[in-house]
Amino acid sequence: MPGARRSLASPVVSGVLCPCGSPHGSAVESGSGGGGGNAGSCGRSVCEASEQDRRLRALFQKLDVNRDGALCIHDLAVGLGRLGLHRTELDLRKIVKAGDKDLDGQLDFEEFVHYLQDHEKKLRLVFKSLDKKNDGRIDAQEIVQSLRDLGVKISEQQAEKILKRIRTGHFWGPVTYMDKNGTMTIDWNEWRDYHLLHPVENIPEIILYWKHSTIFDVGENLTVPDEFTVEERQTGMWWRHLVAGGGAGAVSRTCTAPLDRLKVLMQVHASRSNNMCIIGGFTQMIREGGPRSLWRGNGINVLKIAPESAIKFMAYEQIKRFIGTDQEMLRIHERLLAGSLAGAIAQSSIYPMEVLKTRMALRKTGQYSGMLDCAKNILAKEGMAAFYKGYIPNMLGIIPYAGIDLAVYETLKNTWLQRYAVNSADPGVFVLLACGTISSTCGQLASYPLALVRTRMQAQASVEGAPEVTMRGLFKHILKTEGAFGLYRGLAPNFMKVIPAVSISYVVYENLKMTLGVDSR
């Protein structure tokens, strides 16, 4: 066809799929005369089944270098090289792993066909996520926007360079020079033809690798929820991620509960006249109630994970729709807004459980028989309003915690992707844990004074003779009597639990993912 743009892909590869986008269709045969066949969605002749099979088999035979009826990594390397498509060994391993259903380390013809079908679906999702204008083409501005949505900043000139030359080996690798006429755009046919035999290294894949809030649980569930890709939502993987994250949080909180209770005790009882240290605090708890007392308040702390996570996720999805964006991924400031509002809604819904957790952690031996008894006592003696003591500083603490946590995490992620993402967007376990630990620690540090005031307000009725004070009055009192240092009482045990909490969360999360059938990326 005159003026048609040409792909750098081999004609054999290009002919595997019909330009109408039909799964593993053939290249279109132009019909002669008026009665050659029915028109397909592309307006050309419908692909014939025998022609499809012939072309697929021809491609398979070209790739089957050793003629044994199966494609191994060596076959793909040599065969694709002959077609002008050079792939790294890592790419080839991904292709074989994706299509190898019988786990024999190679692809027979049926597995090869299924791989092509499944791969085209993934390519459509990637193309759609990059095509912000929904005009069927990808240009430099859309590449810039897609990367900025993830916190990766590049100039339009850099994006044009990505379009001009092949950049496989970088995290934006799929976007390559496939158009020889200089229009600086890529349409669906060019995208599909070139990447038909290339593992999907794409923008949504960065999201899959860089999960944050579903993995890291340091006891303060104020992080901005993670984004889930279209594929994860369609396949139902999102709820498995949430369940795995909830289970990981439960184990992590239980393992670090003694440090969490010590933090609460130091926040409420420590002062200049009562300088409680870590060893002294543990000794005091064990002397008063035995080793089991170290876990007081942990039960309610674990129970509130499920409702809080579920409410936050549902609220986050609804707020995304209210914002009105039709993009798969929100921009950074939209994520912060939606995440903070969702966190506020979730915290408001379960806040009485927060008060119960503090009271249970501070209780004396024999004071309450359990959580229900504690709730009944509070309701009878202090009224319903007691369940919302410290509510305002808690709500105010969401913004600095979520904002700093998200900003630091995105900055660290962006820095790593720019400097070290050579072969994949996968950061590896150590980098992921380090980034999550640093960002969560910074978020906690920024919001800690508000968290301390919240805890003291929640505990007011359980401290004999404690006057009823406002948030502002409590800040003034602490600064006057203890100085600025008084706003950070209990910070040491709080930071001591971060690394074990993150490590335990990650290990349990990965194991639960495997149990629930979630593929580890």
UniProtKB/TrEMBL annotation:
Gene3D superfamilies membership: EF-hand (1.10.238.10), Mitochondrial carrier domain (1.50.40.10)
Domain EF-hand: 51-86, 118-153
Family: Belongs to the mitochondrial carrier (TC 2.A.29) family.
Taxonomic placement: Eukaryota, Metazoa, Chordata, Craniata, Vertebrata
GO molecular function terms listed in the Swiss-Prot or TrEMBL record: calcium ion binding
GO cellular component: mitochondrial inner membrane
Subcellular location(s) per record: Mitochondrion inner membrane
Main location: mitochondrion
UniProt signal peptide: none
SMART domains: EFh
Source organism superkingdom: Eukaryota
Keywords: Calcium, Membrane, Metal-binding, Mitochondrion, Mitochondrion inner membrane, Repeat, Transmembrane, Transmembrane helix, Transport
Start and stop residues of the Solcar repeats: 236-322, 330-415, 427-515
Alphabetical list of Pfam families matching this protein: EF-hand_7 (PF13499), Mito_carr (PF00153)
InterPro entries: EF-hand-dom_pair, EF_Hand_1_Ca_BS, EF_hand_dom, GDC-like, MCP, MCP_dom_sf, MCP_transmembrane
Protein name (database record): Solute carrier family 25 member 25
Gene Ontology BP terms: transmembrane transport
SUPFAM superfamilies: EF-hand (SSF47473), Mitochondrial carrier (SSF103506)
Bilayer topology annotation: Multi-pass membrane protein
